[in-house]
Write a structure and sequence with these properties.
Layout (H helix, E strand, L loop, with lengths): L3 H13 L14 H4 L3 E2 L7 E2 L7 E5 H7 L4 H5 L5 E5 L8 E5 L2 E2 L4 E5 L2 E2 L19 E8 L3 H4 L6 E7 L2 H4 L1 E9 L3 E13 L2 E12 L4 H4 L1 H4 L10 E12 L2 E13 L16 E16 L4 E14 L4 E4 L7 E4 L3 E15 L2 E15 L13 E17 L2 E12 L4 E14 L2 E12 L3 H5 L20 E15 L2 E19 L9 E22 L2 E16 L17 E11 L2 E10 L2 E2 L11 E2 L2 E14 L2 E10 L7 E2 L13 E2 L4 E9 L1
C-alpha cells in the first residue's frame, strides 16, 4: 500500500511540473538549447533533436554527474516509456527491459560509438547493470524501429553510448563507491592527447555486491528456504580507444556474474549460488573517415564481436518427486562485420547509404558435456541501406530510408522507415514516423533442448523458427510555451507478429518447443512537460499509458481480457532537481499501477499484482582544489523501502510460478577525483 506522504509527494511533482520526453534528462539546459543538441543514432549522421521524426532522449555527461548515475540501468529507469524489472529469469540476464509494452532484451539495439555491444546472433542483452558511464560523453536513446539503418534487433529502441576520446578527457578521473549489502565499486578513466591528431583513452570498472537478502525482506515468498539466497554479483569492464588522425581503434570488454536461480518459484529453484550466469562480451573495432570534398564523406568500419559464457553457467530446479534437472545455458556467439558508409551533406539535405557484410557463428559452451548432441551454426548476412533527410520546406523535414537484408538461413528482409518533423510555428512542432523491423531467431532459441520423454516435461529444437516482425507507428507534438515551459504528447502503436516463446505441449503428448507463437497489439501515449521554476529549480515528469493485448495465435487465444500482461497500464516518471552550486540534489519517483499476470497462470489467473511508488534520491557536491576536482555523491534507491513484485513473465509454459520481488532500500556513497 502507498503511504499518504508518498502519494502526496508524487502528485505534487506531477501537478507542478511534468517533463518534456525528448529532454527528460536535459533539465540542466535552458529550453532554447535543447533542440540544438545533436545525436547520431537516428540517421548515422549528426541530427538535431529539432528535426527528429521519433521521440529521442539525450543524456550528457554533465547530467550523469549531477544526477549521480553510475550505470546505463540508472538512466533507463528514469526514461519515459521504459519499465524495468530486476531479479528475473536467467535468459534475460537478471533484468527485464520493457519498451512501450514489449519485452526488449533481445529487441533493443545497444551501441558503443555506433558499434554493437550485445550478442550478435540475437541472444538477450545482459549488461544493462554493468555498462559504466564514467567515460561516456552522452547517451542517445531513440524510440521505435531502427532496422532501416541497423538491421536485425533494432526493433523497439536504439541506444548509443558515445565515449570521450583522449583529448576530451585530458587527465585522470576515478570514482570509488561503497554501500550496504557489501557493495563496493571503482570506476576510472584516463586520456591524453599527444598532438592535435593523436590521442589515447582508457577506462574501466569493477563492482561487487552481496545482493538482497530476500529471505528477510520477502519472508512470505521465501520462508520455505533453509539457506541464504545467494545474490552475489560481480561485474567488470575495460575500454580502450585510440584516435590517430582519421583512424579510430577501440576495444571494449564487459563481464557479469550473478545468481540465476531466483527468477522463478523459489521452492523448486536452486538459489544457493551454484546456479549462476557468467557472461562476457568483447568488441574490437577499427574505423576510418574519408573526406572526399566538403559535401561527400565516407567511413569504413571493421568490427569483431564475441559473446562467451563461462562453462558452468546454468540454472537448476527440482520438480516434486523427481531428480534435480540442470539446464545449461548453451550458447557462445561471434561475428565479423564489414561496413562501408557514404554520406552526402549540405544545407537542407542529408543522405547516407552503404553496404554491410557479416559472418556470424554460434556454438555450445566449451568444456561441458552436451547430453543431447552438439550444434554449430555458421551463417552470413548481406545488407544494403539508404536513408535521406530532406528539408522539403523551411519548416518541414522529411526522413525516409530502407534496408535490404539477406540472411543465408532465410529469405530477404525489407525494413523501411519514413518520418517527418514540421514546425508551423517557432514554438510548435509536429512529428511522426512509421517503420518496420525484424529479428532473426538466435541459434540458442532454435536448438535449445533438455530432458527426455520419460521425464514428462521435455524440450526439443525447432529448426522451423521464422523471424520476428514489428510494425511501429508514432505521431506527436511538442509546444514550447515559453523559454522555461514546454509540453509534449506522443501516441504510439506497435504491431508485433511471430514473436518467439516457449510453448508447453505436454497435454498434447508432444515436446515443448520454441515457436513463433505470439502476436502483440500495443498502443498508448506519453504526455510530458518540462518546467524551470527559477534558475536553480527544475521539475520534470512524464505519464505513459500502455494498452493492448497478447495473443498466441497458433495454439490458443491466451488473452481473454483486453489487458496487456506483465507491464503496467499507467506509468509515471517524476523528478525534482535543485542545482545550487556546488550542491545539486535530485529526487526521482516512479509510480505504476497494477501489473496483470497471464490469464493462464494457475495462481494469479489474470489478476494483478499491486502497483507501487518508488523514490530515489542523490545529493551531489563538487569542490575544486588547485588542479584537483572532487565529486561526492550520497545516493539512496527506494527511499521509503517499498516492497513490491513483478508478475513472472512466464506464460502458460510454466503455470503457477511465483512473482518476482524487487530490491528494497539501498545506500551508497561515491567519492570522485579528477585531475
Amino acid at each position: 500500500m502507498f503511504l499518504p506522504y508518498q502519494q502526496a509527494l508524487l502528485v505534487y511533482s506531477l501537478i507542478l511540473l511534468p517533463s518534456l520526453a525528448t529532454a527528460n534528462e536535459l533539465s540542466d539546459y535552458a529550453l532554447e538549447d535543447l533542440m540544438g543538441i545533436s545525436l547520431s543514432s537516428i540517421t548515422k549522421m549528426e541530427t538535431q533533436l529539432s528535426s527528429s521524426p521519433v521521440t529521442a532522449h539525450v543524456v550528457t555527461q554533465d547530467q550523469i554527474n549531477k544526477r549521480g548515475y553510475r550505470y546505463l540501468i540508472d538512466i533507463l529507469k528514469n526514461t519515459p516509456g521504459f519499465y524495468i524489472v530486476e531479479n528475473s529469469l536467467v535468459e534475460k540476464g537478471g533484468t527485464e527491459i520493457y519498451v512501450r509494452g514489449i519485452l526488449s532484451n533481445s529487441k533493443m539495439l545497444v551501441l558503443i560509438d555506433g558499434h554493437r555491444i550485445k550478442p550478435a546472433t540475437g541472444e538477450p542483452m545482459s549488461f544493462f547493470s554493468s555498462l559504466p558511464l564514467i567515460n561516456i560523453n552522452q547517451v542517445e536513446i531513440s524510440m521505435g524501429t531502427g532496422s532501416s539503418l541497423y538491421g536485425a534487433d533494432a526493433m523497439t529502441a536504439t541506444i548509443n553510448l558515445v565515449t570521450f576520446d583522449g583529448q576530451e578527457i585530458d587527465g585522470v578521473r576515478t570514482k570509488i563507491t561503497g554501500g550496504n549489502r557489501d557493495t563496493g565499486e571503482i570506476q576510472f578513466s584516463a586520456g591524453k592527447a599527444f598532438d592535435e591528431n593523436i590521442s589515447v583513452a582508457i577506462s574501466g570498472s569493477f563492482q561487487h555486491t552481496s545482493g538482497e537478502a530476500f529471505e528477510k525482506t520477502y519472508p512470505n515468498e521465501y520462508n520455505n528456504l533453509s539457506e541464504h539466497i545467494d545474490m552475489e554479483e560481480n561485474d567488470y569492464s575495460v575500454n580502450f580507444r585510440a584516435d590517430i588522425d582519421k583512424l579510430t581503434l577501440s576495444y571494449y570488454r564487459v563481464e557479469t556474474k550473478r545468481n540465476s536461480g531466483l527468477g522463478l518459484n523459489p521452492n523448486i529453484y536452486d538459489a544457493s549460488g551454484d546456479s549462476y550466469l557468467q557472461i562476457s562480451n568483447q568488441l574490437a573495432t577499427a574505423s576510418y573517415d574519408w573526406d572526399i570534398n566538403p559535401f561527400w564523406k565516407m567511413q569504413t568500419q571493421l568490427a569483431y564481436e564475441n559473446t562467451y559464457l563461462d562453462p558452468g553457467s546454468k540454472y537448476s530446479f527440482t520438480f516434486p518427486g523427481s531428480d534435480p534437472l540442470v539446464r545449461h545455458v548453451t550458447w557462445n556467439s561471434s561475428s565479423t562485420r564489414f561496413t562501408q558508409n557514404i554520406a552526402y551533406q549540405k544545407a537542407g539535405l542529408h543522405w547516407i547509404g552503404g553496404f554491410e557484410f557479416m559472418h556470424l557463428s554460434s556454438s555450445p559452451k566449451k568444456d561441458i558435456e552436451q547430453p543431447f548432441g552438439e550444434y554449430h551454426s555458421s551463417y552470413e548476412n548481406y545488407a544494403l541501406y539508404s536513408q535521406l533527410q530532406y528539408d522539403l520546406l523551411d519548416n518541414l523535414t522529411i526522413t525516409a530510408g530502407v534496408r535490404l537484408d539477406y540472411d543465408s538461413r532465410y529469405d530477404e528482409q525489407v525494413s523501411p522507415r519514413i518520418g517527418f518533423s514540421w514546425n508551423p510555428l517557432d514554438s510548435l512542432r509536429f512529428f511522426g514516423s512509421w517503420g518496420m523491423a525484424y529479428l532473426s531467431p538466435s541459434p540458442y532459441l532454435i536448438y535449445e533442448r533438455f530432458n527426455e520423454e520419460k521425464d514428462g516435461y521435455y524440450k526439443r529444437p525447432n529448426e522451423d523458427l521464422d523471424s520476428e516482425h514489428l510494425m511501429s507507428y508514432e505521431i506527436g507534438s511538442e509546444w514550447q510555451i515559453n523559454k522555461n515551459n514546454s509540453v509534449k504528447v506522443a501516441g504510439f502503436f506497435n504491431y508485433a507478429q511471430d514473436l518467439i516463446r516457449q510453448v508447453n505441449r505436454t497435454k498434447l503428448n508432444l515436446p515443448s518447443i520454441n515457436d513463433n507463437n505470439d502476436e502483440h497489439k500495443i498502443y498508448g501515449f506519453e504526455l510530458s512537460t518540462h518546467n524551470q521554476l527559477f534558475e536553480q529549480f527544475v521539475l520534470d515528469a512524464a505519464y505513459t499509458m500502455t494498452l493492448g493485448r497478447k495473443d498466441a495465435g497458433k495454439y490458443s487465444k491466451t488473452s481473454s481480457k483486453p489487458k496487456l500482461s506483465h507491464v503496467p497500464v499507467n506509468l509515471i516518471h517524476g523528478s525534482i532537481l535543485y542545482d545550487l552550486q556546488p550542491w545539486t540534489m535530485r529526487v526521482s519517483g516512479r509510480w505504476f499501477d497494477h501489473v496483470y499476470s497471464h490469464p493462464k497462470n494457475s495462481i494469479y489467473q489474470g489478476e494483478a499484482a499491486n502497483g507501487s511508488v518508488v523514490f530515489d534520491a542523490n545529493l551531489h557536491y563538487k569542490y575544486k582544489l588547485n588542479q584537483y576536482l572532487f565529486d561526492i555523491d550520497f545516493n539512496v534507491d527506494n527511499i521509503f523501502d517499498e516492497k513490491y513484485h513483478k508478475i513472472s513473465t512466464i506464460d502458460n509454459s510454466f503455470i503457477g510460478f511465483a512473482d518476482t520481488p524487487q530490491e528494497t532500500r539501498r545506500f551508497s556513497m561515491t567519492l570522485g577525483v579528477s585531475f
